[in-house]
Design goal:
Blueprint: H1 10-15, E1 23-24, E2 33-35, E3 38-42, H2 46-58, E4 66-67, E5 83-87, E6 92-93, H3 98-111, H4 127-135, H5 145-157, E7 166-169, E8 176-178, E9 185-186, E10 191-194, H6 196-210, H7 216-220, H8 227-246, H9 253-268
Parallel strand pairs: 4-9
Antiparallel strand pairs: 1-2, 2-3, 3-5, 6-8, 7-10, 8-9
Length: 269
């Protein structure tokens, strides 16, 4: 995944109909730029970008959530020289509001429930896709010793589930924006084909591990299908992804300490 703040070339900005000098936006991966009404960022996987843009372009407006509408280039494509563009959306993320994030995600998933499975998912190859496949038993559990110490109790309680899968947003926690008087905005959509309750469980796992949420958050959403098993898979997904992306050196004492209490809650459930 790109991490350097490379400025979008003037020709790219112009191709999307923008003008002026782009300004680096805070947050995220530190690679997103604003040029007037446009937001531009590097494309990570062109097939996913084009599929997502087609979906968001056609998605009806909703009173329950907003999205960043993608912008075509002047030649009609969604990608120009490795960049994509969308319209700026007002708001700021607030990871202290996991329940509101969950409600926005559920509304978004309801709106996209009938989409067919995108073919690009079989081709995507990055730490997140790998962690997802391991979490769902599609690949064996192989990890560094530190990661295995976290994963063993989760793998021990993982059980088969039969739930309907659909296109979901796999990283909602920091990608829902709130603005006064507006519905929450769902941004930066990494596409997965899993049960919607798994996407909700990822939000809860992130909130418990990193954003100071209390354990009662788990119980408040226990009505979601397969909830205990979804939380187990969400944690496996995050741990394996971090292990692949950061390597053994990435398991600092703080990283390990953040997961352990949540593993106990998930394994006990």
């Amino acid at each position: 995944m790109t991490t350097s703040a490379v400025r979008p070339p003037a020709a790219v900005v112009a191709a999307f109909g923008g003008a002026g000098d782009p300004v680096l936006l805070p947050g995220g991966q530190g690679v997103t730029w604003r040029a007037g009404p446009l937001v531009l960022k590097p494309v990570e996987f062109a097939a996913e970008t084009r599929w997502r843009a087609e979906v968001l372009d056609a998605l009806p407006d909703s009173a329950e959530f907003r999205v960043a509408r993608p912008v075509r280039s002047q030649d009609g494509d969604w990608v120009v020289d490795g960049w994509e563009a969308g319209l700026f959306v007002a708001g700021t993320p607030d990871v202290r509001r996991p329940d509101d994030v969950l409600r926005a995600g559920i509304a978004f998933h309801t709106a996209i429930a009938d989409l067919p499975r995108p073919a690009f998912l079989d081709e995507r190859d990055n730490p997140w896709a790998y962690g997802d496949r391991v979490a769902w038993g599609e690949l064996p559990v192989q990890a560094s010793p530190a990661a295995m110490g976290l994963l063993r109790p989760l793998v021990d309680v993982r059980r088969p589930v039969e739930l309907h899968s659909q296109a979901v947003h796999g990283d909602l926690a920091g990608n829902v924006l709130f603005a006064e008087g507006m519905p929450p905005a769902v941004l930066d959509w990494p596409v997965y084909w899993r049960p919607p309750s798994w996407a909700s469980a990822v939000v809860v796992a992130d909130a418990l591990c990193w954003y100071g949420a209390r354990p009662g958050l788990i119980a408040r959403w226990a009505q979601l299908p397969g909830w205990g098993q979804m939380l187990v898979r969400a944690l496996i997904y995050r741990i394996v992804t971090h292990d692949v992306a950061s390597g053994p050196a990435g398991w600092t004492p703080d990283q390990l300490a953040a997961y352990r209490p949540v593993l106990e809650l998930a394994a006990a459930g």
